[in-house]
Write a structure and sequence with these properties.
Folylpolyglutamate_synth; UDP-N-acetylmuramoyl-L-alanine:D-glutamate ligase; about 525 residues; 8-stranded mixed sheet; Protein-Tyrosine Phosphatase, Chain A; about 40% helix; Folylpolyglutamate_synth_euk; 2 domains; alpha/beta; 6-stranded mixed sheet; 17 helices
Length: about 525
């Protein structure tokens, strides 16, 4: 397989006005730069108290009331690890349940998509964040809705309650959240919507639905401490901020048991219908079924999705259960879980020159699970394999902790890998092509150009693997450069490429794989 090189691309011309390309350009201007993000984090406190009222104001300026959201029958999901996978499982279950209902009992509903899904980040295209019946919205739908919302914010700028601090248009993630909700509300056929939290929960832009059908929390661990708090209890409190009065509150069995008391108190304080903490994975009936998302850690995510969708079916009075009488998943639910897909998470992409093992794991816990998955798929005992690790992380994360998690989980430690590549998340060499959907302004450009994060990773690796040789470690400025490290290998061994540490990194690699024809439009592997 040949990857596209920078010489085969050129910088795109200025897109026509009101086109999809110009919409993406306009959207990218709403990304907060690194300095703004740092200032916002430092403000904390009083700034946080205004975030939800401000988001409600944006929704109203876009032409929708907060109460309208209740007719979307929202399943709201947060967590540190697995919230995206839980959303994917929930989406697959809902699609199967609603299709079976209409086919089985003659139910007649409004023609059109039935399930909306809002997640982040995207792998290749912004449109992936907003899905209808599992498929990203098309360019026409995105473009039409984008410019309608864009213009609405300009026309209502004088309606801001605090114009001195509230921008006329919301920042990137808030804008996309309003856009997604507008699209879902404008489709009368929608019967359920799954909202994945961006960061945290209590102050997240998605946390404006008054009466969700159910709220779920996947596995919690330490992450985004600058925003959410330095202790696991503080983080749990922020995540539990999505609980609502009268709505079932469900959590997976948490590795930090002290968080369950925090979740329980939060549920009681808000008047949630119940707090249900699911059994440990080893005790789960889900552990014995085949899941569409690989890895033993997906069992808890599938279990959470089953319980969330069960709440939805009961709330809607749909005479269908995700469970058999013996407590195991029903046949239709088992089929739905097996058909679930989620790009960039424990995904294998074979090509003619290498097999890629992609996972957006970016915490020490999730990286340990990712490395365990690599070992299952590419055992250290396989002597006919060369393994390349392509890795990056965002500034502020502990390089030693992240890399230690990988090294501790793989057999033979550093010798498991033939070469190590630390690169930025920039997909292509300078001048290769415009950023478009993959543009990320939320990083320090000086940091990227100096490769300071990558050099810190290199130093951390050298400290961890002493006295092992480190001459197989490379620091490179782009993903394109990283992929060049194993082009046309002189070795006759099979090439396995492990990519992790950042969803943006995985997305950049997937961009190259799609360019080369290894991924289809759904970002699924073309080769079986």
């Amino acid at each position: 397989m040949a990857f596209a090189s920078s010489s085969s691309s050129s910088t795109a011309a200025t897109p026509p006005p009101r086109s999809y390309a110009s919409a993406i350009e306009a959207l990218n201007t709403l990304q907060s730069n690194a300095a703004t993000i740092a200032a916002t984090r430092a403000a904390g406190g009083k700034y946080n108290d205004w975030l939800i009222p401000e988001m409600v104001e944006y929704l109203e300026r876009a032409g929708h009331s907060q109460q309208e959201l209740d007719r979307l029958n929202v399943i709201h999901i947060t967590g540190t690890k697995g919230k995206g996978s839980t959303a994917a499982f929930s989406n697959s279950l809902l699609l199967k349940a609603l299709a079976d209902q209409e086919n089985g009992d003659g139910t007649v509903s409004t023609p059109g998509p039935k399930v909306g899904l809002y997640t982040s980040p995207h792998m290749l295209l912004v449109r992936e964040r907003i899905r209808l019946d599992g498929m990203p919205i098309d360019e026409e739908t995105f473009t039409r809705a984008f410019w309608r919302i864009w213009d609405a914010f300009e026309a209502t700028a004088d309606q801001r309650a605090r114009p001195e601090v509230t921008p006329a248009r919301p920042v990137y993630f808030k804008f996309l959240t309003v856009l997604a909700l507008h699209i879902f509300l404008s489709m009368p056929s929608i019967r359920a919507v799954i909202l994945e939290v961006g960061i945290g929960g209590r102050y997240d832009s998605t946390n404006i639905v008054p009466k969700p059908v159910a709220c779920g929390i996947s596995t919690l661990s330490l992450d985004h401490q600058v925003i959410l708090g330095n202790s696991i209890e503080e983080i749990a409190s922020q995540k539990a901020g999505i609980y609502k009065r009268g709505a079932p509150a469900i959590s997976v069995a948490q590795p930090f048991k002290q968080t369950e008391a925090v979740l329980r108190k939060a549920a009681e304080d808000v008047g949630a219908k119940e707090l249900k903490v699911l059994p440990e994975v080893a005790e789960s009936p889900v552990s014995s079924i085949r899941l569409g998302l690989p890895g033993p850690h997906q069992v808890s995510n599938a279990q959470l999705a089953l319980n969330l969708v069960d709440c939805y079916l009961k709330a809607q009075g749909i005479a269908k259960s995700v469970w058999k009488d013996d407590g195991s998943p029903s046949e239709w639910a088992t089929d739905a879980l097996a058909s679930a897909r989620w790009p960039g998470r424990c995904q294998i992409v074979p090509t003619s020159s290498a097999t890629f093992y992609l996972d957006g794991a970016h915490t020490s816990d999730s990286l340990a699970l990712c490395a365990q998955w690599w070992q299952l798929e590419s055992p250290a005992s396989a002597s006919d394999v060369e393994r390349t690790l392509i890795f990056n992380c965002t500034n502020g994360r502990n390089a030693n902790e992240l890399l230690s998690a990988i090294l501790s989980a793989v057999a033979n430690g550093a010798s498991y890998f033939t070469r190590i590549v630390f690169c930025t998340n920039i997909p292509y060499r300078p001048g290769a092509r415009s950023g478009g959907d993959l543009t990320n302004n939320m990083v320090d450009s000086n940091e990227v150009q100096s490769l300071s994060v990558q050099r810190d990773l290199q130093s951390a690796w050298a400290q961890l693997v002493k006295p092992a040789a480190v001459d197989n470690v490379h620091v490179l400025p782009s993903i394109e450069d990283a992929l060049d490290t194993f082009k046309g290998p002189s070795s006759l061994k099979r090439q396995h490429v492990m990519v992790a540490g950042s969803l943006h990194l995985v997305g950049g690699v997937m961009s190259h794989l799609k360019d080369a024809g290894a991924l289809d439009e759904k970002l699924e592997a073309v080769q079986a």
